[in-house]
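Hey L., structure's done. Input below.
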Amino acid sequence: MECMLTVFTLLSDIDVSYKTIERLYSDPEVELALWNLHVLMIKKKGIQTCNTSGDGTGYSLTIKKNYANEITKLKDGAKKNKAKGKKPFVYSFKLLDLDTWLYIAYGSSAKSEKDAFNKAMKMLQKLDVELETVRLDRYYSFPSVVDEFGDAKVYVIPRKNSTPKGSWKWKRTMKDFVENPMNYLEEYYKRNNSESAFSADKRWFGWEIPQRRQDRIDNTLSCQNLWHNLFNFY
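Output:
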């Protein structure tokens, strides 16, 4: 749209700055319209209960750095950038419906992937959708995270220092992993759908976010998620 403004100016003889489009990313009415579109698509698709996979990824805020390459440099596989100054990445967590390949809930944060996850969970609470199963990577392998999904069955790979200590749901999850490893892993590795979706998104929309303000970054990612849903709607 910013590029098209040049054509608009030539046709109408009205000079419009690219800031006209940029400011829309901070408009609460635009944010409301995006939310309504998301809810309408879920209702139109008839999604009431779903089997999901969830994962996080990152988008670069500067063309000089690539998220995947920089994350591998961090010690102990941590998914949090500890560099001084302004962080060059924004973290995004998305919950994918495995049947329709639509994103059900999502969140983004400049702080950490966990903060993006928490925002996605708040979004999920506002939707009239019930989760039957959830698949998450080892980053979320904690009793507290498993308990957040209520009655939904959660598939996670235990960490090396994991113990049965925790809620009964956590104990049943660990018991299922130990006693039925093949069936458990077969379900767990459906989480690869999330990584495939991320890969498709970045090929379509790019891996860099041009906005700098957090509200505009959030709405940029919301637009990308809605485009993903529209592409997979029919």
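The longest strand covers residues 49-60. The two ends are 25 Å apart (CA to CA).

-- N.
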